[in-house]
Amino acid sequence: MRAVVITEPGGPEVVSVADLPVREPGEGEVRIAVRAAAVSPTDSVLRQRGAEDLPAPWVPGMDAAGIVESVGPGVDRPAVGDRVMATIAPRRSEGGAQVELLVAPAASVVAIPDGATLEQACTLPMNRLTALLGLELLGLDFGETLAVAGGAGLLASYVIPLAKEGGLFVIADAKPQDEGLVRGFGADVVVARGEGFVAAVRDAAPGGVDGLYDTAVLGSSVLGAIRDGGGLAVVRGWNEGEAERGIEVHPVLVRTVLERTDWLEHLRELASDGRLALRVAAQYPPEQAGEAQRAMDAGGLRGRGVIVF
Q1: Pick from 66, 192, 61, 203: which is nearest to 126 by CA?
Q2: Contact assessment for residue 125 and residue 112, using Cβ atoms and an 8 Å cutoff
Q3: Cβ(129)–Cβ(267) under 8 Å?
Q4: Maximum CA pair distance of the chain?
Q5: pLDDT tens-digit profile of 36-59?
Q6: Cα 240 from chain centre
Q7: At what angle do helices 41-49 and 289-298 cross, to 10 degrees?
Q8: What is the value of pTM for the model shown?
Q9: E strand segments, the chain
């Protein structure tokens, strides 16, 4: 099968296509003929750092959508021929999702949303699971206030409507040209993006917000927006020591929830009802996967780049 591969740590130029072997699905697994696979920041991290415990080449990608081609023993769903989306961890011996034939745990595979294309569906699983996990870790109650840094980004576009579904009051940041977009996600208050973020959030929530989801990877610079004893959800880990004023930092490790079938089904229902938007920024053949990563690294995308097989 063809697969996108990273041959060594480096820039987008180390991304290419190779023919790799594929195995039969084992107990509790399915094999999917992939039609579309999303490009995400985890691809760039893998490209830049490699995987020390695995020999190169490394296959990037956490999300794919396609047709179930075969199933292993003990699988009662999905069935051969189903149109599905899947999410997997790329740091495994056979690599990630940007392949023509993907073997994945059945627990990480659900039907695509009603009315969605395979290209749209492949943008759904990992980021939405990340959004759900961060909100669960923050543990905010109905009526409490959440701030979202990076409000116009893809992850924020899932965090905001999911937070609203949970009854939270949401403050998010945006550039002036993106204010309408972020309000469309469901934000109650939109503040200016940039150095004045903390002060603007404090103006909207004078006592500080109960929790903050840092999708923009701003780190400790946003702590001033959070009340004493509040929470901060971070997506790239935390190495800045103990937070001030009793604020609890929650690293969001999506790999721990990739087999939460119930969450994936819930996200599918929300997307089917139009409550979560599926945004494809651009489509690329596998031979241009490096360019897809380059475009993502440059920032400003309003959606995911998608590799189409």
Answers
A1: 61
A2: no
A3: yes
A4: 58
A5: 999 999 999 999 999 988 999 999
A6: 23
A7: 110
A8: 0.93
A9: 2-6, 15-19, 29-38, 63-71, 83-87, 101-105, 109-111, 145-149, 169-174, 189-192, 209-214, 226-234, 248-251, 280-284, 304-308
